[in-house]
Design a protein that fits this description.
heterodimer; A: 605 residues; mainly alpha; 33 helices; 77% helix; disordered C terminus; B: mainly alpha; Helix Hairpins; rod-shaped
Chain lengths: 605, 116
């Protein structure tokens, strides 16, 4: 076998350090003359000789080709040795990127433990450097790669998963973070020995108790994150298992109750709360949660008792104060008109509990006004106005609900003089007035209102029409004022949007102004067409629809343009005069159940 | 939920302590630092020390702080290369043996499948 003799001679030359001769001998051997394993041996020694004379490029080339084919460990070790020649020095100098790149290159070709550890060290450092600069995405990339490389082969992967979880949290990637926490948990030992504690090998050398606390913390963290991502069923299931293991953890039970309440599983939530109260009858969180359930069920009287118990223990507890005030106000609202004294007492306490809530003051003022205690009522109303700009809208709504146009107008004058009213106020106040005007058509409403006013006020059809007109006129004044203060297209469109269904005639002037300001915006033009259709101007609506189509075809936002063109397809079916009616049906359907369909609304599609 | 800015402001570092410090030693070190950097002497440092201690003052807070810190990872020692890039006598023997039939365990090893 001539090939074998040549191979032996070549190996011998390399062994004696006769590199050039070795290269000649081994290089001259044809692959065909050697059996497979011997061919690998030829490449190993040829590569070594080449590397020894500085032909590292050639060595890399012949090694790479054979290694890719054979995965021979000897050759792999040679490749690793060549690629990681300066490894110790690189590590010493902290050249982490270089170490990671070289080691990962080796690992692509061959599973080398030395390269694996080197890559892990470098990736961990790179991850920490990125995390220190809060470059969380980069940190997560490095630690993910480390975990992929480390797998079960490297120790301490719980710490790496922990760090990866933090990096995901830094990016607010809650689901991935939860998965990483769960991986950290899975990598933590369930039990640790004293020897492990002493050696510091288990998660930083923690005591078994500390390890248990960490395990529980991680479980809760992962649960909290899963809940954020809306995977509530999974959260409930996992937390249930956790409660079974740690039945005395009251906070955990309350968290479960909170989640159950949010899922409208009231009875199950109540069971958890009762379990806590059995263990700790004065637990403020459990008492508050119990009160919340009663309030949710519309039982304010039942909510009162646990809340008073909480406040007896801690009078400053904010949630309990607010909840008790709400419970009292709700009870006062349900009292018959004759129980004025009782209602005032309850609402006075509510105001004392939550003095910064204008709603309670106004509810109290309403009872006081009905009881002819105008001065006391005025004090409450002024106190409500003193709570900030937002309270002006609340007080306007109060007068509108009481249908007291004189007071409503006086309030606006007062606010304008003080300069505290903004466009938002005028919009909402204008809509409040519209609602009052709409209510005049309801005969039951008139009866109710006259009873509240003690039988006084305008009577009959003519009185109603008069009142409706007065409130409608004031509404127009207020809405116009909103546009005076903020004449932007957005403001105009806001008004059009709220008015277009119930009062297209009122929406029309605002739609016209918006279209004049933005004549090539298909959405603005569509608003105008719908308003024109609703106001009985079918001819004008038809003309505007042509403009809508032209504008939509030239529109930049293709998605919006397509939607508009789809809608225009329906116009020949329903006609320009039916545009407003169909629009109202669509709006009503959109306010209803999620899965509305146009057919059931009688809209041809 | 994320309080990760905490990670970069390590309270242990601020107090000059190792994360493995016992609760008793932590308190001792805190009081020593507060004496050294009192509010009248060094108000800024005092504020930082106080804030750092606040995050470790109770077992619950300390657990939360510890868990929101990056965990140290102790890498295993770097394995040595398994091969000495000099002549390995076993390679020579392997090559030599393949010249003879010393390694043969079954007669079939000398035969290859004939492909038509």
């Amino acid at each position: 076998m001539p090939g074998m003799a040549g191979l032996l001679r070549g190996i011998g030359q390399v062994g004696l350090g006769q590199w050039t001769q070795g290269i000649q001998t081994l290089g001259a051997l044809s692959q065909d003359l050697l059996p497979g394993p011997m061919e690998v041996l030829r490449v190993v020694y040829l590569g070594r000789a080449m590397a020894a004379v500085g032909r590292s490029g050639d060595a890399r080339k012949i090694r790479a080709a054979t290694l890719a084919r054979t995965k021979n460990p000897t050759l792999g070790a040679d490749v690793a040795e060549a690629a990681l020649a300066g490894l110790e020095a690189w590590l010493e100098e902290g050249r982490w990127a270089q170490v990671a790149a070289a080691a990962q290159e080796v690992l692509k070709a061959f599973p080398c433990p030395r390269a694996q550890v080197a890559a892990a060290i470098a990736l961990d450092h790179l991850g920490r450097d990125a995390a220190a600069a809060e470059r969380w995405a980069e940190a997560a990339r490095h630690w993910s790669e480390l975990l992929r490389l480390g797998g079960e082969a490297l120790p301490g992967m719980a710490a790496c998963s922990h760090n990866l979880a933090l990096a995901y949290e830094g990016q607010e990637q809650w689901d991935q973070a939860a998965t990483a926490w769960e991986a950290a948990l899975a990598a933590l030992p369930r039990r640790i020995t004293k020897a492990q504690v002493k050696s510091g090998s288990a998660y930083g050398g923690l005591s078994p108790e500390a390890m248990l606390r960490r395990r529980e913390w991680i479980e809760r963290r992962a649960l909290g994150l899963r809940q954020r991502t809306g995977r509530v069923d999974e959260v409930l299931r996992q937390r249930k298992a956790l409660i079974k293991r740690t039945p005395l953890d009251l906070e955990l039970r309350l968290e479960q109750a909170e989640t159950l309440m949010n899922q409208d599983e009231v009875r199950a939530a109540e069971r958890e709360i009762l379990a806590v109260l059995r263990l700790a009858p004065d637990h403020p969180g459990a008492l508050e949660a119990s009160a919340r359930i009663h309030l949710m069920e519309g039982l304010p009287k039942a909510a009162e008792r646990p809340l008073r118990r909480v406040l007896a223990l801690d009078p400053g507890r904010a949630f309990a104060r607010m909840a008790l005030a709400t419970a009292l106000a709700a009870q006062a609202e349900d009292l018959p008109r004759g129980a004025r004294k009782e209602a005032v007492r309850m609402l006075e306490e509510a105001v004392e509990l939550a003095p910064k809530e204008g709603g309670f003051r106004l509810a109290l003022a309403a009872w006081l006004l009905d009881g002819h205690a105008a001065d006391q009522a005025r004090l409450q109303i002024d106190a409500a106005l003193g709570l900030g700009k937002g309270a002006w809208g609340q007080v306007f709504g109060f007068w509108a609900r009481r249908e007291d146009l004189v007071q409503a107008k006086a309030l606006v004058q007062q606010g304008q003089a003080l300069g505290v009213l903004d466009p938002e106020f005028f919009c909402h106040a204008g809509l409040d007035c519209l609602h009052v005007a709409e209510d005049q058509d309801d005969p039951f409403h008139e009866l109710l209102h006259r009873r509240r006013a003690g039988g006084r006020g305008a009577k009959g059809e003519s009185g109603r029409v008069e009142k409706t007109e007065a409130w409608l006129a004031f509404s127009r004044t207020l809405l116009d004022q909103a546009v005076v203060l903020d004449p932007s297209v957005d403001r105009l469109r806001d008004l059009v949007n709220v008015l277009i269904v119930p009062h297209p005639d009122l929406a029309l002037p605002y739609a016209e102004r918006a279209a004049a300001l933005r004549p090539s915006d298909p959405m603005v033009l569509l608003d105008l067409a719908v308003a024109q259709s609703g106001a009985g101007q079918s001819q004008a609506a038809r003309k505007t629809l042509l403009k809508v189509e032209r504008a939509a075809r030239a529109h930049k936002d293709r998605h919006e343009a397509t939607a508009i063109l789809e809608l225009l397809r329906l116009v020949p079916v329903m006609g320009a005069e039916g545009l407003h009616e169909s629009f109202c049906k669509i709006m009503r359907a959109m306010d209803g159940p999620d899965d509305f369909d146009l057919d059931s609304e009688g809209i041809p599609y | 939920m994320t309080e990760l800015s905490l990670v970069s402001q390590d309270p242990y570092q601020e107090l000059g302590l190792e994360p493995s410090v016992s609760d008793a030693d932590l308190r001792k070190a805190y009081f020593a630092l507060v004496r050294l950097h009192g509010p009248e002497k060094d108000p800024a440092r005092f504020k930082r020390i106080r804030a750092a201690y606040e995050r470790l003052a109770t077992p619950e807070k300390r657990l939360e702080t510890d868990m929101l810190r990056l965990q140290p990872w102790t890498a295993p020692p770097l394995p040595a290369l398994e091969r000495d890039p000099a002549l390995w006598i076993q390679d020579v023997l392997r090559a030599a043996r393949s010249l003879s039939d010393l390694d043969r365990r079954h007669f079939r090893e000398d035969f290859r499948e004939v492909k038509s």
